[in-house]
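WARN no homologs supplied; continuing
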Amino acid sequence: MTHYSNGGSTQPNLGLNIISVSAGLLYNLQKEEFKKIEQEIPKFKKQNEYSIIIAAGTKTLQPARTNHYLVSSISLNAERQFSYKGMFGVGIDLFKDNSRKEYLKEEGIENPTGSDLLYAGGHASYDFVFGKTSFTVQMGGYFFNKAKFFQDVYHRFGFKYRFTNHLMANITLKTYWAAADFAEWGIGYRF
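OK structure emitted
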């Protein structure tokens, strides 16, 4: 099944699910067999990694509205790579969501302060590592959230790419279970 979505950048965000079946055929055009080159893979040395990621994106609100609001986040992460292909970790996230102004106005708060737009949470993560690229899956819960209209848990799915030993790019989709909240585009620094 393939799911297409705009990641909450405009509303309504109903998405499109496509179920498909595929098959393939492989034929070797060469007559001689390939020679295998045997190489011993060195034993993996487990290592800790710490990073800070700054990201931003835009979102609209339900029911469908035309205004786009800036959403930004800062994430502090501590991760342990335990194999060539896997890494797990924990982190703390601080979000600033300018769309909260609209919700707070609807609740009767006319002049929300800066702290009304902030919320923070902690997450656990698992990364599937493929060389310089990794696919990250995170599940988190809020420990600071003044607004009562948001859910208590959140998720992130996305990719990280390491340009150098210290600099990386980050593209993730923040969701509440199966509903997209916003897409984040970020840059990070690894220690």
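Helices lie at 100-106.
OK
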